[in-house]
Write a structure and sequence with these properties.
heterodimer, A: 493 residues, alpha+beta, six-stranded mixed beta sheet, five-stranded antiparallel beta sheet, B: 422 residues, mainly alpha, globular
């Protein structure tokens, strides 16, 4: 029988060998792709054994995201708390078990979890892993001026809208307020309550309206049209227009905001100051949609605002049709007259329009907006300091200065007087988009200040308004500018 | 150095290994090494030294490596169970004590001549059937996790199937030894009783819904039949019969069809039928080459909920694979391979047909059971709930495997004694 036994023994050893081969497949061959899978609970758990870096406001002291340590069945986990609650819910986002991550918590996850390895840190982190030591992430210090952020959020008052403020010379995002906001601390425990929404705007509190909310720009878009008109050399500040109170397009009348008192003969500056639709309509017809859209592209339209937030929390501005950007091949069919004063399916994000204001303030150069100022290692050393990045030059410096003086006249004696700040020269542009229904206007305002040395550019947009951009949005922009131009106190530098 | 002294030294080595493993669980958990882990290892070692003393008395010439290997496997298993669930580890410790007692009892009772068992072969055959049928009985039988494998007597709950397999092997060894020449001629009337018993066993298995068990019993049966008769076509025909039967069951029993579907593509029902398999695969993959280290694997989510259901019984291999890594788990499987190799060696050395068949049956049973559960986990075959010998949490399995070990040592003792005399 020994021959049979030895054959059977070989069969038995082959069976066990196949187990080693099978295990090798999973641990060596398939392991990397399994680790990438979304439903891999072990990898999800691993994220919470990491002591995430903290997130700070621009002063480097005020904490926007902290950790709460908890031991669960022998393991130490770190869960997120957001001490400022609603204040920076959209910019900072949240990191939870049930809902994954949003905002900077997602876009800066590598830094926050210490996964940003380079040759000098890889030895340390690998050793720590072998020792089973807790991995500590890096702190992220944002550019957010939290007191101004608070002012913005309070001023928006729970209405559907957003306010974005940038530092024109660098692109730093000083304020990114989306209203209504939500309490990120509730996302884990009571997501239903977070989603439910309440107050004057009970819709989509999780949406970051600053970078992913689309608004009809109305007359605020005239800054882009004016930039195209001046920069292309087709018009000068002295060009004159005759306003009959309306403009004829395709044989139809397109009315001014107020048709009862036509302005008559005006120059370019007066047309912008008083936001005369008929003049811009003429400019649009003269230039054509392609020229205006070409300039819009230079300002950053048609691409996601390049701010350091997750891609799905940013949307491009441009002409929309049926919820999607109109293909470039069909742009020639767009109505240039309506486009010129910000209608014709043009939709913008507040971030994009803040970039337009900041570009004019910055002498025509678009700066890439950014929320992360610097990344700090647990030992206090700076891992990375973000440098301001030029996106491109959108318009000539001369065009920018011509636009600046026109926009200044809007605030000093035009439609935007509500944005005047005592002792500071402010340049701005109002916008009111009528939807044809009462109480359904979009009120917008873009501005920058001080005119001689701009430190802040701001964009405010609100939906469902019965007032105008000048009466609703401009006062909010004024408050934000005041808060940002105030000498920073010690607690907020 | 005598066989028994080699056994003792190996056991001390095993004690050191298990002590180290336990200490690392402690370090991972409390971040201190406590004397508790040391005393635990010493107790464990003491237990096996007692068993060793019994082998000195009862089977002085037996193979010296099987007991230390069993010690290593139970030690590693116990450590992992402790790491997963302290209460279960305490109970498992008790079961190891009972198992070793059964081991000692078997050795002492049969040390003169275990071949008396041969004369009771039909009793064992009937016993195996009764044990298999027990869970299907009303009142005492109990269904756990879809399979009716348990018998409940007051506070005690056990799986008679674990003991049935040993009774079956004793019966087959005796019956095949007697009938092997006749069977080798392969006349239908000689095969009758065999097929009858097999049919009964299959029927019981279908009733209890135990697929892993079915494969195990059938495998043992075919292997022993092949060794006894040297007829390869028995194996071929038997395999064909099994595949045919399995295909029939596949179309008739929904539970089986579901298992096969989850084997081929667990992600088709990731939150339902495939959940266990997927979580277990993730657990194994997370071990990579070096493993996370004892006590440092991830088996619960951030709320403390178990990720893999039945991790300490059916899926203990996944837990070990994660914490030991490819290097460690391969070494662990090599222990199983060595155990099997020693077992087959004993069968070769044994002088008489009954001893050979008994040793081959016990060894192949051990090997095949390992293959069925681990193979199911690493998706070589469909997953069936069955214990990993000496390692999984479960009293019946531990005790039955110690009896199996005692059987191998008895055969080995006799063979070596005779060789020495010759």
């Amino acid at each position: 029988m020994n021959k049979q036994i030895s054959r059977l023994a070989v069969a038995g050893l082959v069976l066990v060998t196949s187990l080693i081969v099978g295990t090798t497949y999973w641990q060596a061959w398939a392991a990397p792709s399994l680790a990438e899978r979304q439903d891999n609970a072990i990898k999800v758990v691993a994220q919470f054994t990491i002591k995430r870096g903290l997130i700070y406001a621009g002063d480097g002291v005020t904490r926007l995201a902290v950790n709460r340590q908890r031991r669960v069945s022998g393991q130490t986990f770190y869960f997120r708390r957001y001490p400022k609650g609603e204040l920076t819910a959209h910019a900072v986002g949240y990191s939870t078990r049930a809902r994954s991550r949003t905002g900077l918590e997602r876009s800066r996850n590598d830094y926050l979890t210490g996964a940003n390895r380079n040759l000098s840190t890889i030895v340390d982190t690998t050793l720590d892993e072998l020792r089973g030591k807790t991995i500590e992430g890096n702190d992220v210090i944002t550019t957010i001026r939290w007191r101004a952020q608070q002012v913005a959020l309070d001023a928006l008052g729970g209405q559907c809208g957003a306010a974005v403020a940038l530092e024109p010379s660098t692109g730093k995002v000083l304020v990114l307020a989306s209203s209504p906001s939500f309490d990120p601390n509730l996302v884990e425990r009571n997501f239903a309550a977070v989603q439910r929404g309440r107050g004057p705007c009970p819709v989509a509190p999780l949406l970051n309206r600053g970078t992913a909310g689309l608004f009809i720009p109305g007359s605020t878009f005239k800054v882009v049209t004016a930039a195209a008109a001046l920069d292309s050399g087709r018009y000068t500040p002295d060009s004159t227009f005759v306003d009959p109170g309306y403009c004829i397009e395709y044989g139809q009348r397109v009315n001014n905001y107020d048709t009862t008192s036509p302005f008559g003969r005006v120059n370019f500056g007066q047309a912008l100051q008083n936001s005369i639709n008929s003049s811009f309509c003429e400019m649009g017809k003269e230039m054509g949609a392609e020229v205006i859209l070409d300039y819009a592209r230079r300002f950053g339209f048609y691409e996601d605002p390049p701010v350091d937030l997750p891609a799905d929390e940013r949307v491009p501005s441009g002409l929309y049709q049926g919820g999607r950007l109109l293909p470039q091949s069909q742009e020639g069919r767009a109505d240039p007259g309506r486009l010129a004063f910000g209608q014709e399916r043009m939709l913008v994000t507040p971030m994009q329009m803040a970039m337009v204001a900041a570009t004019v303030a910055n002498g025509g150069v678009v700066m890439e907006p950014y929320l992360t100022d610097r990344v700090r290692a647990p030992d206090g050393s700076i891992v990375q300091r973000m440098e301001p990045d030029e996106l491109r030059r959108a318009i000539k410096e001369e065009t920018a200065s011509q636009l600046t003086s026109m926009m200044e006249s809007v605030v000093s004696g035009g439609t935007g007087t509500a944005a005047q700040v005592a002792g500071v020269r402010v340049a701005g542009k109002t916008g009111t988009a009528e939807t044809g229904q009462a109480g359904r206007n979009v009120a917008g305002f873009i501005a920058f200040a001080p005119v001689d040395r701009p430190q802040v550019a701001v964009a405010v947009y609100l939906q469902n308004q019965s007032g105008t951009g000048g009466s609703v949005a401009a006062p909010i922009a004024k408050q934000i500018m005041e808060a940002l131009l105030r000498r920073p106190s010690n607690s907020e530098r | 150095m005598s066989a028994r002294t080699r056994e003792l030294f190996s056991l001390i080595l095993v004690g050191v290994l298990v002590g180290t493993a336990f200490a690392s669980v402690y370090i991972a958990r409390q971040e201190v090494v406590s004397t508790e882990s040391l005393s635990y290892a010493l107790f464990f070692l003491g237990l096996y030294v007692c068993a060793h003393i019994v082998t000195r008395i009862a089977v002085p010439h037996a193979d010296p490596y099987l007991l230390p290997m069993a010690g290593l496997l139970t030690g590693i298993g116990l450590t992992e169970i402790y790491r997963l669930n302290e209460d279960e580890a305490f109970r498992q410790g008790l079961w190891i004590v009972i198992g070793l007692a059964a081991f000692a009892g078997t050795l002492l009772a049969l040390r003169r001549d275990y071949r008396v068992l041969e004369s009771y072969k039909y009793l064992f055959g009937i016993g195996a059937l009764v044990l298999l049928a027990l869970p299907a009985m009303p009142v005492v039988g109990k269904t756990v996790n879809g399979a009716r494998l348990w018998v409940e007597l007051g506070p005690m709950r056990f799986q008679p199937g674990e003991f049935a397999k040993i009774a079956l092997i004793v019966f087959l060894a005796g019956y095949l030894r007697e009938k092997r020449e006749v069977l080798a001629q392969a006349r239908l009337k000689d095969l009758g009783p065999l097929l009858l018993i097999w049919g009964c066993a299959m029927a019981v298995l279908v009733l209890t819904n135990d697929l892993g068990g079915g494969l195990l019993y059938f495998g043992i049966f075919l292997a022993m039949l092949y060794v006894a008769t040297a007829q390869v076509w028995f194996v071929v025909a038997g395999t064909a019969m099994f595949v045919g039967g399995a295909a029939l069951v596949y179309t008739q029993v929904g539970r089986v069809a579901e298992r096969v579907r989850m084997w081929l593509d667990p992600w088709s029902d990731a939150d339902g039928g495939g959940y266990q398999t997927i979580q277990s695969i993730y657990a194994i993959a997370n071990g990579h080459f070096g493993g996370t280290g004892f006590g440092q694997g991830t088996f619960t989510d951030a709320d403390g909920n178990q990720l893999i259901p039945y991790v300490s019984t059916d899926f203990i291999y996944s837990a070990l694979a994660q914490e030991l890594g490819l290097v460690g788990i391969s070494a662990f499987l090599l222990v199983y391979m060595l155990f099997a190799a020693r077992g087959f060696r004993i069968a070769m050395l044994a002088q008489d047909g009954f001893s050979k068949l008994l040793a081959v049956g016990l060894t192949f049973c051990f090997t095949l059971q390992t293959f069925i559960i681990v193979g199911g986990i690493v998706r070589i075959i469909p997953l069936t709930g069955i214990t990993l010998p000496f390692v999984s949490y479960g009293g019946s399995s531990i005790v039955a495997n110690f009896v199996l070990l005692a059987g191998l040592l008895l055969v080995s003792n006799r063979a070596n004694e005779q060789m020495g005399r010759a």
